[in-house]
Amino acid sequence: MMRLSKQLKAVFTVLALSMAALPLSPAMATSDLLKTQAPGFFRTRVGDFEVTTLYDGGGAGGYTLEMFKGNPKDVVSLLQASFADPKQIVGSVSGFLVNTGEKLILIDAGAGGHWLGPVLGKLAGNLAASGYRPDQVDLILITHLHADHAAGITSLDGKRVFPNADVWVSKADADFWLSEEIAKKAPKEAQEFFDIARKIAAPYIAAGKWHTFEGTQKFATGVKARPINGHTPGHTGYEFVSKDQTLLVWGDVVHLAPVQLPKPEIGIAYDIDGPAAVKARLALFKQLAADKTLIAGAHMPFPGIGRLRVDGKGYAWVPVNYLGTLY
Question: Which residues of the chain are under the pLDDT cut of 50?
Answer without folding.
Answer: 1-4, 7-25, 28
